[in-house]
User: Fold this.
Amino acid sequence: MSRRRSAFTLIELLVVIAILAILITLMVPAVQKVREAANRIQCLNNLKQIGLGLHNFHGVHNAFPPSGWTTAWPGNPAGKSVGWRPLILPYLEQGNLNRLYDFNVNWWESPNPIAAGFAVDTFQCPSVPARPSVMSALAQSPRPAMLFPVPIAPTDYEAIMGVNPASIDPLFYNNLNRFSVMHRDSRTRMTDILDGTSTTIMVVECAGRPLVYRQGTAYPSLANNQGIGWADSEGPFSLNGANADGSLEGCGPANGCTFAMNKKNDNEPYSFHPGGGNFLFADGRAQFIRESISLTTFAALCTRAANEVANAEQ
Assistant:
């Protein structure tokens, strides 16, 4: 008797392949959502660690570090240009890196560019795409143009210095009430945060720099001389507001600059989390805020003593 050999037909194979393709298509977005959820939580944890570092610095020096120092102070006795991130290295379990960094010279002077090449995981958000190595930088006063001996390690978190009155509301904001907790050469104490520590943002996501992004698209042809790495003291900025496509900032609400975040990453809050971004408040709390928040409400969260009534849930 002849024995017939069983096997799949071509049509059956094609059906199985089609089903597998459909299943994979359905699974990929789900996997990406799970991965992004984990990344967002890690990003929040990074900000919480940064908050602990800032509060520990305050406990030692009775003031939060400024966004960047250019003058002598107990936390910066040499009066050199130094940013806020190097100042909190001892409180982020980065004692060895802190010892490598020399606070007697500016951050771009030897040996600090070597120290700046060491990546600090706490300063990087895992949602950010890979970026090219930074081996040079355009001049940004007082720093000259630079060629670095090693690639400069990036940061995705930046101090918000306050708001730009002309861009937000020049009739309400001025040089007395426009500032947040950390600004140039500031010496802000906890008791100086009159609007409340739970409603005052200290650190924002400003991810992907120094590569310039506009609404999720990178523009390598656009130069950016600020926020080039975690040691950079010239990266902090004040809130301006951007227009819908991210081509303009600070043009005012009447001209369409009404968006608080995620339109452009050079000198505006920006994250790679869908629908919003993570922010660190002065009480040490890290919170996700939706990008639909109004510019005026977000501006109120970026000042420490302007007497506005606002909260992050708005």
About this structure: The chain has one domain: 34-301. Residues 34-301 form one domain.
